[in-house]
Structures are given as structure tokens and as C-alpha cells.
Amino acid sequence: SARVSSGPWLSLSFYQTVARAAVSAARKAGVRAIISVSNSGLMASRIAKYKPLVPVIAITTSEHAYRRMALLGGVHPLMVPATKSAEDTLFSMEEAVRAHGYVSDGEIVVFCAASTTVPTLSNTMKLYTFGEFTNRD
Fold first, then answer.
1. What angle do CA 90, 119, 12 make, to 5 degrees?
2. How does pLDDT run across 81-97, given as a tens digit for each residue?
3. Which of 39, 46, 47, 88 is the residue whose CA sits 20 to 30 A from 68?
């Protein structure tokens, strides 16, 4: 069961549930990758624990988190510039993932984020079609 700690942050079991749900969704939906936005790298670590069958692409703005995630099996960290809005973060994420050739436009991915500096992205897990943020008319 999810527990709420004192204060605004949710307990570890909540984040473990998000990570497990991301891996389960990836397996059931046959996605190309799991893309995680993480300030600390902990969400990517939690996802990797469940041994997903697809690559985990971990997006961060932190060099420390980047180095930490580079040590995780199956995790491919990418640095992006810090942004202030969810739309800008998602745009930067898609540009970086596309530039490295991990995912092509039109492929289905799992997107997840735990605590981020962009409140509307925090505690999110969803399936989406890659390219929907950068290919808007």
C-alpha cells in the first residue's frame, strides 16, 4: 500500500509502484523504450531493478545523476538543459532521444517521472507516441 510521509513527499513504496507499473506497461504494450525524467537518477534505478526488456532512457539536468545512471545496466542517461515548463522539458527530451537514435517518431514508449523540478510532470507514468511534442504543427 502507498504510504504518505509527513510533508509533501511520498514514501519510497509509492515510487517503487510507479517504477513497477512502467515496466509492466512496457512489457504488456510492447513499447520501444521507457523514458524517465529524473533529477537524481533514483527513478531510473528503481526501473532498472525490475529488469525491463527494453532500454531505459534516463533524462536528467544533473551531471551527478548522469554519472550515477551511467553505471546502471540497461540505462542510457542523457543530459538536457533545465527548463521551467512541462512542454519545454518534453520537447528537450524528445530532441535528445531522437538525436541519439534510441526511438523514432511514431513508436510507442512509456514515459515516467517521479519528483521533478516541473510540478506537472511529477509522479507521472503514461504510454505515448514518441514525437507528439516536437511534431506539433
1. 105
2. 888 777 888 888 999 99
3. 88
Q: For residues 127 and 27, what is the distance between their CA atoms, to the nearest angstrom?
A: 12
Q: What residue has cell string 542523457?
A: 78
Residues in the chain, total? 137
Shortest CA distance to 125 belongs to which of 64, 46, 9?
A: 46
| 75 phi, psi to nearest 5 deg | -105, 130
Q: What Cα–Cα distance (Å) separates residue 80 from each residue in 10, 12, 28, 136?
A: 26, 26, 29, 20
Report the alpha-carbon distance of residue 5 to residue 44 in Å, rounded: 22
- pTM, rounded to two decimals: 0.84
DSSP code, position 9: P
